[in-house]
Amino acid sequence: MNKRTEKRQNLAQLLAVLRRYGPLTQARIKEYCGLQASTVSYLMNDLKRVGLTRVAGQELQEGKVGKPGNVMQLDNERASFLGLYVEDTWIDVYRIGIDGTTQETRHVEFDGASVKDAVIGAVETELSAYPQIQGAGIAIKGIVYNDGTIKSGWRRGRGDEKSFWNFTGLSAALGQAFPNIPVVVENDANCAAELYHYNVRREQKNLVLYLLNQIPFGIGCGLILNDAIYRGRSGAAGEIFEKDAKFLKCADDLQRGNATVEQFLPAILPHMMETAYLLEPECIVLAGSYLNKLSERELKSLEPLWDGMPVPVVVAGGEEHLNPAKGAALLVTDKFIETIIEEVMRG
């Protein structure tokens, strides 16, 4: 490995450690990264030069002698990021710092007539108020193919009318409207999977997430394999195409209000079981608006359903729910960090 490649990898590792475990002293960064103290000092000076880190205070001595070390953290005033989740007639907006801390959440109503106009308007509003925003991620209810095209799913809209989302040209329109910041458009289940992956400090490298949405009804599936979103050959990996008549009847009953989510979940257990044996993930996560409304007692009552599953099942509902908007913000943070690493390498 040549020295430039080694430096690039060390920078990526150091930034990942600060995002996962910061604020930290340089001594602790050295321990997490397994690097020499001189290498950590050199890299931290590079990050300070581009304005990405700041001193958060001094370490507690706890009986130690000598001068206390500075505690370093990523500078959220230097860079923050937007995440938007396009819901049926509203947009969830998250603004996070570069360290992943949630700084603001908003709920923006829109008439649903023009998704592009609503998304662009929401991003423009945030950029005008917070010029330190360095990227925007958009989570959508549709398949985002690797070539950038989008297959839109059903939406209900106002008055319960049923139609297709119109995401045609969304990526291109965002790129034209905001040429100076990276913009990521991603499937909502992938964004939720990335958020769970981040919440467990990316210590689980392989997981499967099912996203159960209520309005309109839909089941998405996001895959994290070998520490990254797995999209497959075209970008549609994880999508559930279920033709079983019993499954479809359960789904229809759920949409019509003739069944509860607790009654519906057994219908997807065979799919979960097959996925568990096929991929052998470290866990399967269930999330989405159907589960967000359940109380802690109701969530606890679901646990007997997972008896016999070969991997742990985590239900991220109630207060622990996963909003794809924040996952989208984390994905665009990754893009920004890639550009920072290149900036340091050029310097």
TrEMBL record:
InterPro entries recorded: ATPase_NBD (IPR043129), ROK (IPR000600), WH-like_DNA-bd_sf (IPR036388), WH_DNA-bd_sf (IPR036390)
GO biological process: D-xylose metabolic process
Keyword Metal-binding: no
Record's keyword annotation contains Methyltransferase: no
Keywords, in A-Z order: Carbohydrate metabolism, Xylose metabolism
Known role: Transcriptional repressor of xylose-utilizing enzymes.
Family: Belongs to the ROK (NagC/XylR) family.
Name used for this protein in its record: ROK family protein
Lineage, highest ranks first: Bacteria, Bacillati, Bacillota, Clostridia, Eubacteriales
